[in-house]
Amino acid sequence: MHDDPLIIAGQPYRSRLLVGTGKYRDLDETAAAIEASGAEIVTVAIRRSNIGQEPNEPNLLDVIPPDRYTILPNTAGCYTAEDAVRTCRLARELLDGHRLVKLEVLGDQQTLYPEMRETFRAAEQLIADGFHVMVYMTDDPIAARQLEEMGCVAVMPLAAPIGSGLGIQNRYNLRTIIEQAGVPVLVDAGVGTASDAAIAMELGCDGVLMNTAIAGARRPALMASAMRKAIEAGREAYLAGRIPRKRYASASSPVDGTFF
């Protein structure tokens, strides 16, 4: 839908599916899945991926070249604001001044749940330092509003814990975040299959970011293709406007004016 772009930090994108690069068997599988997804924004865990830090190791940027994709450095694996800020600054150095980042500060290794106090601290520092911050967060409407007011360019509430595949667990909070937001709202974490992605888009999300649901599938490239179609279908359904839910039946054809 070329007339319905996703706009992040002033940049338009045709695809509303954002994908990660972790958990694939090798770089060839990574490249094939990303190609099939149609994604234009690809997120990279700076602490876990080589994008030039190790010149003698395979470079992830060889399969996701920055002249074709928008690279979205993320702070996965960070548990403090200081670590997250340091990681973003490293990414900016490696990517020649790149400013768009995904902020992710975790509370513990078991749940990988966002640590919101540290997230707020890191967001404040990064925004002051000139970064465009897309922020992974709890599905808390108040926190979402506060992060937007601070200057984050997108809020990214989790649908369920990272890698769980449980799908959207609290669509009511998600709807509240969407209704009050003046920046893009993207579901981040918890998607398991194509129907989860479609539901997120039907609720009014501006996009979905996922990794495990694709990389962990038996056929990652095929799942990536399915997710691409689900995102597009969900967005079209949202724009079309669904019929209201009713308790009783409603005839598809009108009764008035029948011939017999």
Account of the protein in words:
The chain has 260 residues and is of the alpha/beta class. It contains 8 helices and 10 strands. It has helices at residues 27-37, 81-94, 116-128, 141-150, 171-180, 194-202, 212-215, 220-240; strands spanning 6-8, 11-13, 17-20, 41-45, 70-74, 100-103, 132-137, 154-157, 186-188, 207-210. The strands form 3 sheets. The protein has a 5-stranded parallel β-sheet. A 3-stranded parallel β-sheet has the order 6-7-8, covered by helices on one side. A hairpin with a 2-residue loop joins strand 1 (6-8) and strand 2. Helix 6 (194-202) packs parallel to helix 8 (220-240). It is globular, with a radius of gyration of 19 Å. The N and C termini lie far apart (45 Å).
Average pLDDT level? 93
The radius of gyration is 19 Å
Share of residues in helices: 25-40%
Largest sheet: 5 strands, parallel
Query: Span from first to last CA?
Result: 45 Å
Element-level helix/strand string = EEEHEEHEHEHEHEHEHH
Q: Strand percentage, roughly?
A: 15-25%
The spatial strand order of the largest sheet comes to: 5-4-3-10-9
Secondary-structure-based class equals alpha/beta
Low-confidence stretches: none
Work out the number of β strands: 10
Shape: globular
Number of helices: 8
